[in-house]
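Duplicate of earlier report; Signal transducer and activator of transcription input re-posted below.
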Amino acid sequence: KCVTWVPLFPAKVKKISRTFDSTKLASPVCRSRSTRQKLTGLNTAHVLLVFQSTYDRCPLELVRCIKHILYTEQRLVREATNSNSPVGGMMDSMSQKYQQINQAFEELRLLTQDTENDLRKLQHNQEYFIIQYQESMRIQAQLASLATLPPADRQLREPALLSKKNTVEAWLTREANTLQKYRLDLAEKHQKTLQLLRKQQTIILDDELIQWKRRQQLAGNGGPPEGGLDILQSWCEKLAETIWQNRQQIRRAEHLRQQLPIPGPIEELLNELNSTITDIISTLVTSTFIIEKQPPQVLKTQTKFAATVRLLVGGKLNVHMNPPQVKATIISEQQAKALLKNENTRNDSSGEILNNNCVMEYHQTTGTLSAHFRNMSLKRIKRSDRRGAESVTEEKFTILFESQFSVGSNELVFQVKTLSLPVVVIVHGSQDNNATATVLWDNAFAEPGRVPFLVPDKVLWPQLCEVINMKYKAEVQSNRGLSEENLVFLAQKAFSSSSNNPDDYRSMTMTWSQFNRESLPGRNFTFWQWFDGVMELTKKHLKPHWNDGAILGFVNKQQAQDMLMSKPNGTFLLRFSDSEIGGITIAWVAENPNKAGERMVWNLMPYTTKDFTIRSLADRISDLNHLLFLYPDRPKDEVFSKYYTPPLSKAVDGYVKPQIKQVVPEFATANPDPASGNPTYMDQGASPAPVIYNIFPADSMLDADGDFDLDDTMDVARHVEELLRRPVESQWSVFVSDLFTS
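Output:
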């Protein structure tokens, strides 16, 4: 049976302790009806009694035993089932790392317990030494008092006192050397403990916590969630507890030295140990003041936003007994650099944040100490002088969170600060696109330990592919990412290349300017602006079709023509417009209506978001009867019918509802109107409700570089309303006449 290992925390230890107390409830088992049940009940009760007698006073031993059993079982199952799986290997590596960390904590626990025992022994020996020293002083006083006695009495008593004095002094000399050795041995053990503490703290803070922060940064680009902080907090709390225990031991050793000064190097050693342990705990406290929930990295002025900061060791160090206050301030890139250099920034800020103070709260159930900023708002921003071609959406700021608190009855006072991920401040929604590009590039290519907020100016194309693929899947909320063919298309667009070989782009680099500063050749938008438009369109209107694989998308006009010409007439595909941001077009192969026997590929004018707010893509495809098969050979109804809008209901109270549809005149079926005898561009509908079409002039509808005007569409809607009031016999001819003369 596979058992999932669950970390056991103090709350669960208490629960186990309560379980021992409840073993008395097991006695009714013995009153079972059958003999076998009675025997089983007796055995169970006996086992419970053994457990209780063994672990009642030390439930942590049971915890360690259970954890070891569960880990061993989990490891055996994993080795048997996932030995060849990359995921299994990764999980095994993670479990191995966690095991090493837990083993180090166990070693630290044993070392700390050992030094605690040695310290108690030292204290006991020193107390006995002081008693003997006082005895020596008493003998000295007795010898001094002999001077007042007659010579005969003095000679009678003096030899015994002198002998006793010599014996005690010899013992004191030996014991003083022994005490000094005990002190040195204890100091050496503390040095070993502190070395292991530093190593363990480095693993947790510089490896595990930094990796969590990196995952948090990549999550801003659409990467997987950074994961919870519970395990990290449990490790940091163990560190804090062990550090504090050793600090108290060192302070007690110093107190014993002051109580009984013995010449030697111990004073210097204890000072060094005290300095080291203080530095270790200072590093732990300042490093575990983190931002659990980052503020939005594209920050619009006058807009409410939130953030959460957390102190991972706050509960263990009892910081919540005097809840600290946290302040948030927005600062510039230059101010952030000065702050990390410990230069005096004179508490300057680069803007004003409303509701920027918050008291940290301790949550008993979770053991977390955190401050939740729920209603912050950036009232104003002060921009710095920009460099060269840098725009306002390339200027980076950061939010500084700072606080001050004390631990150990004000023994130590800490001033803690932490910086958010870089934020770009905008004042209008139109700047969001370019600001997102700045954030995306920074999150993806920021290097550990960098100077704020330097990033490489150019990166390898495969690196950028990983970034935009991650972003695309996150924005579209799809498991279908960008294929190798899609990435080749993007490379062709980015580098103005015609090569279809992916290997040709593996060593190529893309600069920030190529990404989102310089316009694509022959266009008035950048590579990122085009790609972001595709993401927005897909996210808002095309998500199900992308997930179904109905949209090829990343195909240029020539590629579409080559693909379609080998297919039957009526075959079509959907591709993103090259010439318009956030546009998608339909390309299809059909006979040329103006030249019999000639086949050609047609490209419908691109649809944009404003088009799909009027009528969905599936309904538009349904309207066009000349579209038969989705490339390569899937009947269109098989792909899109589940997204068609249901037919309108029949007339109610004598009224019928109009429906706007689209038609391409060159490909509409001319059906005779029985009333007028004139051809119209409409299909015979089964519903009695009239079906109205949006009719576009052929030259604009089929122009791939044309622009779709929402106002024209609204004019059509107004025409529809007017036509519905006219006699049915004449409305079609009037409609067409009015449309093309308006």
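The mean pLDDT is 82.

Merging into the original ticket.
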